[in-house]
Amino acid sequence: MKRLAVSLALFGVAIAAAAHAEAAARKIEIQVTADGYKPSTMRAKPGEKLVLVFKRIGSAGCGNTVVVPAANFRADLVEGKPVEVAVTMPKQGKLTFACPMDMYQGEILPP
């Protein structure tokens, strides 16, 4: 009986760990410079949870603001201060982000 209880407890821990691993979002760091986004193109699996971390480096011109339409997100970027936005990769298509005037553009594509 004691073995069964220990086995069930370990099984529960394994399930909880697997669920947490699936729920954890992958962070993607994106530098915003006077030349645009670096990287400007990334890949993610459909349905994958992501956290985009935008960090402005120096004077970024139009890149002082970022817009992520899929998350209905818009934020001003302060130099050196990371800004995070949680998104989920769509089942089909791509995710995009840009400056308000679309001069700087970035995308996350399926594999």
The class by helix and strand makeup works out as: alpha/beta
- In spatial order, strands of the major sheet run 2-1-4-7
N→C terminal distance: 48 Å
How many domain modules? 1
Helix content: 10-25%
Basic shape: globular
Labels describing this entry:
alpha/beta, 111 residues, three-stranded mixed β-sheet, 20% helix, single chain, 41% strand
Helices and strands in order:
Blueprint: H1 2-23, E1 26-33, E2 36-38, E3 41-43, E4 49-56, E5 65-68, E6 73-76, E7 83-88, E8 95-98, E9 105-109
What does this structure look like?
The model is unreliable at 4-19 (pLDDT under 50). The chain is built from 1 helix and 9 strands; from the N terminus they run αβββββββββ. 20% of the residues lie in helices and 41% in strands. Strands 2-1-4-7 form a 4-stranded mixed β-sheet, with no helix packed on it. The protein has a 3-stranded mixed β-sheet with strand order 3-9-8, with no helix packed on it. The N and C termini lie far apart (48 Å). The protein has a single domain, classed as Sandwich (Immunoglobulin-like). The protein is globular. It is of the alpha/beta class.
Summarize the structure.
The chain is 20% helix and 41% strand.
